[in-house]
Amino acid sequence: MRQLQCDDVLGAMAEMTDFRLNDFLPYLLNNAAEVTSRTFSASYRKKFGMTRAQWRIMAHLGQGGALTATEICARGHLEKSKVSRAVSGLEEGGLLRRMTSSSDRRAELLSLTESGRKVHAILAAQAQEFQQEMEARLGPERARHLAQLLDELAQAEAD
Amino acid sequence: MRQLQCDDVLGAMAEMTDFRLNDFLPYLLNNAAEVTSRTFSASYRKKFGMTRAQWRIMAHLGQGGALTATEICARGHLEKSKVSRAVSGLEEGGLLRRMTSSSDRRAELLSLTESGRKVHAILAAQAQEFQQEMEARLGPERARHLAQLLDELAQAEAD
DNA sequence: CTGCAACTGTCGCATATGCAACAACCACTT
DNA sequence: AAGTGGTTGTTGCATATGCGACAGTTGCAG
């Protein structure tokens, strides 16, 4: 009797695998990324009215020299239409300059203007402060581990 | 001469802090989350035409009993409007049922229907398979560490 | 040189999203 | 009992997004 009841329960349970949402890595990744980015994006959103995509483009261009839109797409795992529109916005804001490549007239070389570089300096400072808070919270060791793991994931799954 | 040039370069550099985008945790988090979720979401998107938000709600409701929209918001770090619309979609699809709470007529208790449970079983199986792939790629140890770190981040920053 | 496949960035359209405003409702005070 | 502040879920609106179609361009095969 009792045994049968158990069987029924188990039968009903059998439809469920023993899947645990709270251990599911894509879920945890999204939660952590969303919560973190929501907090951080407030710092530049209010200050410069900047999109996340726009922030990323600024960050990439601030790193080094001129980049092409496609290169930014690849590095940042972004859609080309997203980049295209974000770039338009930054150009209107005078933070960014386009120059059609001499070697390939389809491609446009993107680079920061003077004021773009100034804004980037502020953004970088904000970012570094935020990063330090996170590292302090996690501990430097674990923060490095985390960075390593996240990088592997992004690389591995990339097409 | 050479020295002066260097100074000039360093002067220009000085505007840049030594910020390195590739070590910036919010950036890495977003990349990893985006790349991972893009891969995974294909599995249910094409099969059930389901949104990421809808998947999440299914997953939460599949875990246990009935939940209120607000509870789902809190657990999944989602906007209430997002949840509201996702729930409407799931209800139209017959996967989910609403029942106004007897103790609070504002709140609605959400629970899966029979077909909702069946769909959830498939989703859970897909998820588990995906999880195993990820764990195999990272190694079980490191996967657990990662989960732990991500959980901390989501908790810490949460309001 | 011509044709052809692949690539670059833009745009239109349908959908998804965030935010604020909103009505219905609750708990608590006076 | 009526008022007040706070909560729950929905909706309108402006914006952001993904996807596919597109014109302009390149490089290569024939």
Automatic annotation (TrEMBL), chains A, B:
Highest taxon of source: Bacteria
PROSITE patterns membership: HTH_MARR_2
Occurrences of domain HTH marR-type (ranges): 22-155
Pfam families: MarR_2
Single GO molecular function: DNA binding
One record GO biological process: response to stress
SUPFAM superfamilies named among the record's database cross-references: Winged helix' DNA-binding domain
Keywords in alphabetical order: DNA-binding
Stated name of the protein: DNA-binding transcriptional regulator, MarR family
Annotated organism of origin: Paracoccus isoporae
